[in-house]
Design a protein that fits this description.
β11 and β12 form a beta hairpin. α3 packs antiparallel against α11 and α4 crosses α7. By secondary structure, the protein is an alpha+beta fold. The two termini are about 35 Å apart. Helices cover about 30% and strands about 20% of the residues.
C-alpha cells in the first residue's frame, strides 16, 4: 500500500508490549560469491537505504548469468541475522501485478474484454455517487485511470466481519463513498479500490475466490513454491520468514516493536501476497519475458501513463535506469514491510525489501537508488 495511516501506527504503538533499541548497523554479504565479488556500489546503496528503513534490508540481484544477494542490518532485532532472499515477507502492492496478470489470462481466453465496462461483469457494484460502471472499463481499472480516488483499506479496519476477515465488496463500497476525482480515462490516480474491484471481477468470471484463481493461474504454473496468496482468515507468515516491525528513528537510535497482527483480506487483490525476493524475481522475469500472458497482453501491460520520469501500465511501473534502458516491476508497502522488484528485458533483476514501513519519511528515493544501482551493477 502506498501509505499506512496514523491510526494504525497509534494502534501498533499501543499494542506493542516490548520495544527494542538498536544503535548499530552491520552489513552482511549473504553468500560467499557476493562477498567475493563485492558489488560495492550496491552495498553502499543498500546501507544508505537500510539506514533510513527498518532493522534489516536485503537485495537479491543479478543478470542472465546468475544472481547474488546482500544484506544490511538484521532481520530479527537483538540479533545479527542477515535477511535472506528465500525468506517470506508480505509483498504489499506487488500483489497488483499478480492480479493484473490473472485478469489478462482471462482476456487471453476471451472471457474478459479490456474495453468493456465493469458493469458487464459486476452489475451494480460501481454505481452511484457519480460513478458509472458502464463507462469505467477493465482497462481503466488496470491502469489506475478509472477516476476512483486513492483509498487506504486500513482506514476501514472497523468494517471487519464477525470471523475477523474482510469482504472486498464492503471495502469497495467504502472506497466509492468518495466522489470521483475525474472522468474515466482522464487522469491517473493510484487507488487500491481499482484492484479490489478487479479481484471481485476475477471471482465472478472464474467462480473461484481470488486467492485460488491467482494461485492456480500464476503462482503454481510458475513454480513459485514460496509465494502464497493467503485465504481470508489465514494470518500465518510461512517459515522461514523475516519478522516485520513498526518503529521510528531518532538520529542514531532506532525503536522497534513487532508489527500488529492483521488479516490479509483487508488488502486482498490489492496487497495480500506473501513471497520472497527470489520468487518475486522469478515472477517478474517470467512476466516481462512473455511467459505468463500472450505477447499482445504483455504489450498492453507495458503501455504506460506518464508519471514524471516513471510510467504505470497494468499493475506495472516502468523506471528509467541511470545506465540506460527501462526496468519493469512494482513496489509494495504494508505494516511491517516495504519492498520493490524490478527487471529488465535482458534478464537483469533486483528485488529489495526492509522489514518495517514508516507512516512518514518513507525511504522511497533510497529504495529507487538501490534498485537502480543493483540493476546497473549487474550489466554483463
Amino acid at each position: 500500500m502506498k501509505q499506512t495511516r496514523k491510526r494504525l501506527a497509534a494502534t501498533v504503538g499501543a499494542a506493542a508490549a516490548a520495544i527494542a533499541l538498536l544503535t548499530t548497523t552491520t552489513a552482511h554479504a549473504t553468500t560467499a560469491a557476493a562477498a567475493a565479488d563485492g558489488h560495492p556500489a550496491t552495498l553502499a546503496a543498500l546501507r544508505t537505504f537500510q539506514a533510513a528503513a527498518g532493522p534489516g534490508a536485503g537485495v537479491y540481484a543479478g543478470g542472465a548469468a546468475g544472481s547474488w544477494a546482500l544484506s544490511a542490518g538484521t532481520g530479527t532485532i537483538n540479533t545479527t541475522k542477515p535477511v535472506q532472499p528465500d525468506e517470506h515477507f508480505r509483498a504489499g502492492s506487488q500483489t497488483k501485478t499478480f492480479t493484473a496478470a490473472t485478469v489478462l489470462t482471462l482476456v487471453d481466453e476471451g472471457r474478459v474484454a479490456l474495453d468493456t465496462g465493469v458493469e458487464a461483469y459486476l452489475p451494480g457494484v460501481v454505481t452511484g455517487n457519480g460513478y458509472d460502471g458502464t463507462r469505467i472499463t477493465v482497462r481503466h481499472l488496470l491502469q489506475q485511470t478509472s477516476g476512483i480516488p486513492a483509498y487506504e483499506p486500513l482506514t476501514a479496519i472497523a468494517l471487519v466481519e464477525p470471523d475477523g476477515t474482510y469482504k472486498a465488496a464492503t471495502l469497495v463500497r467504502e472506497g466509492l463513498k468518495q466522489a470521483p476525482v475525474g472522468a474515466p480515462g482522464a487522469t491517473f490516480t493510484y487507488s487500491n479500490t481499482n484492484y479490489l474491484i478487479l479481484g471481485m471481477l476475477v471471482e465472478r468470471v472464474t467462480g473461484l475466490p481470488v486467492h485460488e484463481a491467482v494461485t492456480r493461474r500464476i503462482i503454481q504454473p510458475l513454480g513459485l513454491t514460496r509465494t502464497v496468496f493467503p485465504a481470508p482468515g489465514n494470518r500465518a507468515l510461512p517459515a522461514p520468514a523475516v519478522p516485520g516491525y513498526h518503529g521510528a528513528r531518532f538520529g542514531p537510535f532506532f525503536f522497534w516493536s513487532p508489527v500488529i497482527d492483521y488479516d490479509p483480506s483487508i488488502f486482498g487483490a490489492a496487497g495480500a501476497v506473501i513471497s520472497t525476493e527470489a520468487d518475486l524475481t522469478t515472477f517478474y522475469r517470467a512476466l516481462i519475458g512473455g511467459r505468463v500472458v500472450s505477447p499482445a497482453m504483455t504489450a498492453e501491460m507495458e503501455r504506460t501513463t506518464p508519471l514524471g520520469s516513471l510510467g504505470y501500465g497494468f499493475g506495472l511501473f516502468s523506471m528509467p535506469l541511470s545506465c540506460g534502458g527501462l526496468a519493469w516491476g512494482h513496489n509494495g508497502a504494508v505494516p511491517g514491510y516495504y519492498s520493490q522488484t524490478m527487471v529488465t528485458e535482458d534478464g537483469r533483476h533486483a528485488s529489495a525489501m526492509t522489514n518495517a514501513h514508516f507512516t512518514t519519511n518513507t525511504p522511497q528515493q533510497q529504495l529507487f537508488t538501490l534498485i537502480d544501482t543493483a540493476l546497473c551493477e549487474s550489466r554483463s
